[in-house]
Write a structure and sequence with these properties.
Number of strands: 5
Structural class: alpha+beta
Helix content: 40-55%
Number of helices: 3
Shape: globular
Distance between the termini: 21 Å
Strand order of the largest sheet: 1-2-3
Number of domains: 1
Radius of gyration: 15 Å
């Protein structure tokens, strides 16, 4: 369960006790390998990746040419597990170095 207020997010553990306050960070579609400047706001890199993936699926379904080109580039990157792991490690590092809001 998660409640959001302004740029902070409060999550609750299984015992319904609040976890520590998480600071939201912002990345754009382009920063995450996409084609536009849509901003995603998330408290973790995993959440950021999910938001980007959802957006990518929406753009795929819409047939957006720029996003389709970016997706093809990502597919080429995925052909090499080492390259893909390095890309994800770099994006995670970039996320971790972002200031919180």
């Amino acid at each position: 369960m998660r409640f959001e207020r302004s740029s902070h997010s409060i999550t609750f553990n299984e015992a319904n006790q609040p976890n520590k306050l998480s600071t939201m960070k912002t990345m754009t579609c382009k920063q995450l390998g996409g084609a536009c400047n849509k901003e995603f706001h998330a408290a973790s890199f995993e959440e950021m990746a999910e938001l980007s993936k959802k957006h990518g699926m929406e753009m795929f379904q819409a047939g957006d040419e720029e996003h389709l080109r970016a997706m093809n580039e990502m597919q080429d990157l995925m052909k090499s597990p080492d390259s893909m792991r390095e890309w994800f490690d770099n994006k995670r590092k970039e996320f971790n170095e972002l200031p919180g809001q």
